[in-house]
Amino acid sequence: MRQTIVAGNWKLNGTRDSVKNLINGIKNGLDNNDKACVIISPVAIHMGLILKLLSDFSGIKVGSQNACANDSGAYTGELSCAMLQEYNVEYVIVGHSERRSLFKENDDDVANRFKAVKDSGLIPILCVGETLEERESDQTEVIISRQLDAVIDKFGVDSLQNSVIAYEPVWAIGTGKTATGEQAQEVHNFIRQKIAKLNQVISDKIQILYGGSVNGGNAKELFGKNDIDGGLIGGASLKADEFLKIIKAAN
Ligand code: PEP
Asked: What is the pLDDT of residue 112?
């Protein structure tokens, strides 16, 4: 059985006070019956504070919103995997559509970042997803394949071991427009079958999250699908009550 993951991506949000309240709100709302693995990915500057608030609590893991492919050197504005590891960060989102579109990270950049995360022993959450235009022109599978192959062709299918994939249709991110359970399941199944052709064990084990306007109202339906192993949550992870509803939907 694959454990459900509910991962919050806080993006560029939060103040000292608001992140403190948010983390405490989530922490206080969790209980022993909750089955999901809960991850929070804050802005880097808030990580120290959050790790301190979680020092006596193992129910929430900390993720980074990105990581550099290089360990150190002249890479202004980047964070290395070694640095993240030193501070007990466990997961790293790579290839988020905002990184791809706004910061021009191409498939190869994403693959190199993914590999650096893997090599350091952290767990990558590799984001893939098509735009509305690509979906409407029947290119969804072509795009998802290209994004996955950038990693598989360069580093082999074995690099997907102990990794997480997030299917995030770009048209559903931050738009309030969620893929239906069926639409998401269809793509998740495509991803799992694609990996199965190369390695059945990895395909059976890999957690594939859905991301794109998940909220307390639609999480249960999505998480109920065979190949959907949880969610990568943007907006709704910034409200403790709503995020907790999503976590509870995994029970
Ligand atoms: C995201 O940014 O990864 C995301 C899924 O955002 P939202 O939940 O706000 O659509």
From this structure: 98
Q: 42 lies in which domain range?
A: 5-249
Cβ of 212 less than 6 Å from ligand 1: yes
The CA–CA distances, whole Å, from 209 to 7, 136, 205 equal 9, 22, 13
Q: Which residue has its alpha carbon closest to ligand 1 atom 2?
A: 234
Q: Label residue 46 by pLDDT band (50, 70, 90).
A: very high
Number of domains in the chain: 1
Closest-CA residue, ligand 1 atom 3, reads: 234
Output the pTM of the full model. 0.98
Alpha carbon distances (Å) from 25 to 34, 65, 116, 151: 15, 21, 33, 37
Identify the pLDDT of residue 232.
Answer: 98
> What single letter denotes the amino acid at residue 29?
G
Please check whether residue 35 is in contact with residue 249, taking contact to mean a CB–CB distance below 8 angstroms: no
Q: The domain spanning residue 33 has which CATH number?
A: 3.20.20.70
CA of residue 174 to ligand 1 center, whole Å = 5
